[in-house]
Model the fold of this input.
Amino acid sequence: MIVSSTNASTDINIGKYTFGDHVLANLSNLNQQVDLWLIFYNTSKIAIISTLFTLLISSMAGYGFEIYKNKTRDRIYSALLLTMMIPFAALMIPLFTLMAKIGLLDTHFAVMLPTIASVFIVFYFRQCTKAFPSELIDAARIEGVKDWKIYLFVYMPVMKTTYAAAFIIVFMTSWNAFLWPLIVLHSTELKTINLVLSSLSSAYLPDFGIVMVGTVLATIPTLAVFFLMQKQFVAGMTGAVK
Done:
């Protein structure tokens, strides 16, 4: 992909596997065909907002399922996990109908809303919360600290590695999302980088040099997020709680 991004489309078609000198030309042509700043803004907006709300809501759910005990908790949790077995293909039409009825079609809210409550992230946070020292919660309650303050000022700081790992997972999933944005986004000015690259590569005579340089640019943010948070990701995936 990186090598191809430096070559012209004709060189890529004949199978050239060495670096070329067309990277700036490919980048210039890509910028002429699409508004790079706009599509990166759209993609970043959707990915960041979706990730932050997913972490907030899913971590609250995972925390609640583990900390608060009642008779129906496990039944509700089991029913929630069962929804992971439903393929997205079976949800597309109901979701599309729902978004149409509430007037959110062709908006970024339509892309973000169905992804905010992630069952997998709820499961992940509950499993990590099992290692959370309950003594800290008991001590805070004895001091008269309210439950929402315990969550914000006791639970979240201790579980920061878990949040970091979840952030990477959710951000990469949201950044690379293709099918659902393709269904609900119709306006050119609202499309994400993946939709734009797909349209460029499916043209009658696609310029593969432009597609490859665009793919490189689309990959950089996810790589940057992962490498910047690599230590926290490893610690979070291994369940480290300090």
